[in-house]
Amino acid sequence: MKMLINVPETVVADALRGLAAAHPDLTVNVENRVIVRRDAPVSGQVGLVSGGGSGHEPLHGGFVGPGMLSAACPGEVFTSPVPDQMLRAAAAVDSGAGVLFIVKNYTGDVLNFDMAAEMAEDEGIQIAKVLVNDDVAVTDSLYTAGRRGTGATLFVEKIAGAAAAEGMPLERVETIARQVNENSRSFGIALSACSTPAKGSPTFDLPPGELELGIGIHGEPGRERRAMMTSGEIAEAAVEAVVEDLQPRNPVLVLVNGMGATPLLELYGFNAEVHRVLAQRGVPVARVLVGNYVTSLDMAGASLTLCQVDEELLRLYDAPVKTPGLRWGV
Amino acid sequence: MKMLINVPETVVADALRGLAAAHPDLTVNVENRVIVRRDAPVSGQVGLVSGGGSGHEPLHGGFVGPGMLSAACPGEVFTSPVPDQMLRAAAAVDSGAGVLFIVKNYTGDVLNFDMAAEMAEDEGIQIAKVLVNDDVAVTDSLYTAGRRGTGATLFVEKIAGAAAAEGMPLERVETIARQVNENSRSFGIALSACSTPAKGSPTFDLPPGELELGIGIHGEPGRERRAMMTSGEIAEAAVEAVVEDLQPRNPVLVLVNGMGATPLLELYGFNAEVHRVLAQRGVPVARVLVGNYVTSLDMAGASLTLCQVDEELLRLYDAPVKTPGLRWGV
């Protein structure tokens, strides 16, 4: 698999240099791998820190900025960042109001954020944590005990980020972040595997004429392989999986997310089918995002995330945000 | 090649239905294939209309909204829209201040926009046209006499859109659009071919271990095939091609654009190399955009566009814009 890289060993560092060159609002520590909003710490505001393996961009580094994350810690591709990164990020963004760690549910991430939380508290930084585990496809997976954290991470970071920007205290920001996660469900499908720079070839084998339902964002196995389906059939499977589990009664935020290599033309077509099925099931839609937000390198495919919102969560979702990957209102 | 579609025949209509579902600020005429900002025509403002083959999303439909295009006309995949679409768009956005057609230099687009301009003028709509032809790679190509129009289209639409939003008269908006094009140059590279839904397989053959320098946004042949190069070497080739032709003396806007299937992680790494080479050549950078903006379905690769700006063009570039694909300040 050909890649637009120098050598596999420098992929993350090269990307961080490029992020710094593109976004003067961010402070990028390339050596220590921490991305911080330039004006951090913001007086009186809770700091939000997330992180995880690289290869899911714009998640997380592209979501750093006013109204969303205060800092992000990128690991190697598909590999957890280390506690030192998280500690450094927490120290950089803590204004004294405390820091919320937003952790996708993968075993390495969970362990390392736990360790970082202990280290930070030893240094006098108050830490709260929220675990994102929205993927309904499977329980227990290649890197995860329990459900995986995927597309809902965007909604948790956006909505909790708005709560922090309003000056809400740590306990309240944590409660809201947990509320977003509990009201979110995701389901992904893959048409092709992705290739990591280190391996240089597809990470799993998906034969011509087949797709995988319930794929993880690292290509972890899903629920089943099927003969290729139409966009409408895939939307029916994805909406059913998510809605049966979530049982939404309020309006939902919809994220139709590309895994990386699927053209926007196809994602919008898929969005049409998702809306058709949601309407059939009587699920009201509050807001829609279509694009590549929580990706898996060059995987072809898509995921659907629904997040049920009340008036407060919707207001916080609509609040201004200014990051490389998500921006409105400023 | 597996695709997230229903059938090839409905790909564009399906995407337009999905665009309408996601973006209530747009009026999408699915049957007649015209995307119009909902508040058009805007009193006292010049209307901006562009269009072209589908498959380059977010260009053009994703750039419709306040501060950018008033309307867009999507053709079939990689196929020019027809004059009736352009006429309908012009009629929908003309407030009496006239309409600027922004036309990428492909033979079909040029002929059809010319015909639409005549038809519109017959109906009393004042029309001006600007041709975008920024691609330095080749003169005359598969679909083009002269240079192809590629990444600079984004800058033309953004900056002319801001000029129109300020209430500048048609002649002035046209002059500014032309000035942006004359000060812009692009160069693209492909690591893989793209597959159109109709064909269902790659549109050209690019062997393992080779890349194509100077590729067009439909996979038209470029300058040469080469053995695979590093990101740094590719940046050197792209910057040299663009800078030698443009000879910039003022600061430049930089667009590091993904062709569709190249991960953002790689695009940011490429951006780092582009900045390294620009710094070596003493080219000052005013603003940077990194992402998938002018794509070629699922092609892997990237393009570089530089646009030399004076104070007025930079001010117009920075002005607020609110579209699905580009948004800031609102």
TrEMBL record, chains A, B:
<dbReference type="GO" id="GO:0004371">
    <property type="term" value="F:glycerone kinase activity"/>
</dbReference>
<feature type="domain" description="DhaK">
    <location>
        <begin position="7"/>
        <end position="328"/>
    </location>
</feature>
<protein>
    <recommendedName>
        <fullName>phosphoenolpyruvate--glycerone phosphotransferase</fullName>
        <ecNumber>2.7.1.121</ecNumber>
    </recommendedName>
</protein>
<keyword id="KW-0808">Transferase</keyword>
<keyword id="KW-0418">Kinase</keyword>
<comment type="subunit">
    <text>Homodimer. The dihydroxyacetone kinase complex is composed of a homodimer of DhaM, a homodimer of DhaK and the subunit DhaL.</text>
</comment>
<dbReference type="GO" id="GO:0005829">
    <property type="term" value="C:cytosol"/>
</dbReference>
<dbReference type="InterPro" id="IPR004006">
    <property type="entry name" value="DhaK_dom"/>
</dbReference>
<dbReference type="Pfam" id="PF02733">
    <property type="entry name" value="Dak1"/>
</dbReference>
<dbReference type="InterPro" id="IPR012736">
    <property type="entry name" value="DhaK_1"/>
</dbReference>
<dbReference type="GO" id="GO:0047324">
    <property type="term" value="F:phosphoenolpyruvate-glycerone phosphotransferase activity"/>
</dbReference>
<keyword id="KW-0319">Glycerol metabolism</keyword>
<comment type="pathway">
    <text>Polyol metabolism; glycerol degradation.</text>
</comment>
<dbReference type="GO" id="GO:0019563">
    <property type="term" value="P:glycerol catabolic process"/>
</dbReference>
<dbReference type="InterPro" id="IPR050861">
    <property type="entry name" value="Dihydroxyacetone_Kinase"/>
</dbReference>
